[in-house]
Amino acid sequence: MRIDEKKLNKLGEKISAAGLKMSIVESMTAGFFSTIWSLQTESGDYFKGSIICFDESVKAGLLKIPKELITEFSAESMEVTVAMLKGVSNLIPADIYMSITGKAYDDDKKDGPSEPGDVYIVVSGLGKVVSRKFKFQGKNAAEVFILSFNASLDMLSNFFGKEG
């Protein structure tokens, strides 16, 4: 299992050529998406930065997500993923935003309906917002991260048309 480098590079070139800026907010992936994007050769032209909000206190404190929203839906939910995107957009100006959370592995925490492999991704920009819930069957958290990243590339590709 590998990152779709061809698609990553094509998207990076398109974002750079269009003069757009991108910011990311991550929970489950704890910086994985941002690291991969930063390695793309044109990233210095468009990648503004990211926020990692692994802990709920960062979601509530820095991103201003109401604790009641986290309690009602859980940190691993579409509602919180959308709120994360709104939070980062208030902190890092950009044209394209991506927000990711979910459950990459089983743990003792049973605070919501999400199960291992449930991933929530929201991408916004260019007048569009796309949100998706994925159910990945990775062997481990690393596979879930890679599957999630490649899915986010597909979502972002749709912003640029079929050749994205």
Describe this structure as you would to a colleague.
This protein is of the alpha/beta class and 164 residues long. The chain has one domain (5-160): Maf protein (Alpha-Beta Complex), CATH 3.90.950. Helix content is 42%, strand content 21%. It is built from seven helices and five strands; from the N terminus they run H-E-H-H-E-H-H-H-E-E-E-H. The protein has helices at residues 5-17, 32-39, 43-46, 56-61, 67-73, 78-91, 141-157, and strands at residues 22-26, 47-52, 96-102, 118-125, 128-135. The chain has a five-stranded mixed sheet, with helices on both faces. It is globular and about 45 Å long. The protein starts with a helix and ends in a 7-residue tail after the last helix. The mean pLDDT is 92.
Characteristic key phrases:
globular, 164 residues, 42% helix, Maf protein, five-stranded mixed beta sheet, alpha/beta, single chain, 21% strand
Q: Could you provide a short overview of the structure?
A:
By secondary structure, the chain is α/β, with parallel strands linked by helices. The protein contains seven helices and five strands. A hairpin with a 2-residue loop joins strand 4 and strand 5.
Estimated radius of gyration: 15 Å
How many domains would you count in the coordinates?
1
Q: CATH superfamily assignment? A: CinA-like
Order of helices and strands: HEHHEHHHEEEH
| The CATH top-level class label | Alpha Beta
Please, how many helices? Answer: 7
